[in-house]
Design goal:
- Keywords: Membrane, Transmembrane, Transmembrane helix.
- This is GYF domain-containing protein.
- InterPro entries: DUF4234 (IPR025328), GYF-like_dom_sf (IPR035445), GYF_2 (IPR025640).
- It is a single chain.
- The protein has nine helices and six strands.
- It is an alpha+beta fold and about 250 residues long.
- It folds into three domains: about 1-30; about 45-95, Dna Ligase, domain 1 (2-Layer Sandwich), CATH 3.30.1490; about 140-250, no CATH class.
- The strands form two sheets. It has a four-stranded antiparallel sheet.
- β5 and β6 form a beta hairpin.
- It is rod-shaped, with a radius of gyration of 38 Å.
């Protein structure tokens, strides 16, 4: 390679250290081959049986944030002897960061919804870890029926009050529309000589049917409850209480 003098411009033989004309020292010209630049960490990952890449570490971090890949995704980069799960590589550090970010976003969202008291103070003090309030208990159906007969239906008025309260607590725990006010249900049932109970059983049946639990879905007995309330309100009470008992038993 000829060496060109930067002072006089003369072309000198390769290996010369000074210019043959002016005697100026020569600097070797530097030439760089234009090659495709490979990032320090060229990552590949497997999706649907196909290898995709190469990607930079920043790209992989973005894929994690967007749920394109996860901890079980097979990944590989230059220098690794074989494919590995992402959680077994240096990328696992981003799993911890992503998890911390998700938790922060979750709790931040809950703190912003301060209008619902059942999601803050009452959830901690009155409810268990599930959506069934601790105040709602099972009641023995036979005991309630016998007490209604023995007290000449007086106990049945209290029973209606108690069921209305339990159903409202269940609905409030899931932030669903509530049913009848317990005291209103009691007074209106007495004043209307039982006619109000028709509306009561219709509305409470709809509230129970709207509830949903991870391992249990209450049955919709609204029609049966309403029809039976026209003739035998006591049987409607038995069915409604049975539905509440099932929620307490299976809604945990």
């Amino acid at each position: 390679m000829d060496m060109k003098c930067k002072v006089c411009g003369k072309e000198n033989e390769a290996g010369a250290t000074v210019c043959a004309d002016c005697g100026s020292p020569l600097e070797e010209a530097l030439y760089e081959e234009t090659t495709a630049e490979t990032p320090d960490s060229s990552w590949y990952y497997v999706s649907d049986g196909q290898s995709l890449g190469p990607y930079t570490e920043a790209d992989m971090r973005g894929f994690l944030a967007g749920n394109v890949i996860d901890r079980s995704t097979y990944v590989w980069k230059n220098g690794m002897p074989d494919w590995k799960h992402l959680e077994d590589t240096e990328l696992a550090v981003y799993l911890q960061r992503q998890s911390a970010y998700d938790q922060q976003a979750q709790y931040g969202g809950q703190n912003q919804t301060g209008g619902n008291t059942y999601n803050t103070y009452n959830t901690y003090n009155n409810y268990s870890s599930t959506l069934v309030p601790r105040s709602v208990k099972e009641r023995g159906l036979l005991t309630c029926v016998l007490l209604s007969f023995v007290t000449c239906s007086i106990y049945q008025w209290y029973w209606i009050y108690a069921m209305a309260k339990d159903i409202n607590d269940l609905a409030a725990a899931q932030d669903k529309p509530r049913g009848c006010d317990p005291m209103v249900a009691l007074l209106m049932s007495i004043i209307s000589c039982g006619l109000y109970t028709i509306y009561f059983f219709w509305r409470e049946g709809r509230v129970l049917a709207s509830l949903d639990y991870p391992n249990y879905k209450p049955s919709n007995d609204t029609t049966v409850l309403t029809i039976l309330a026209l003739f035998t309100p006591l049987i409607s009470s038995v069915i409604l209480q049975s539905d509440i008992n099932d929620i307490v038993r299976y809604g945990e």
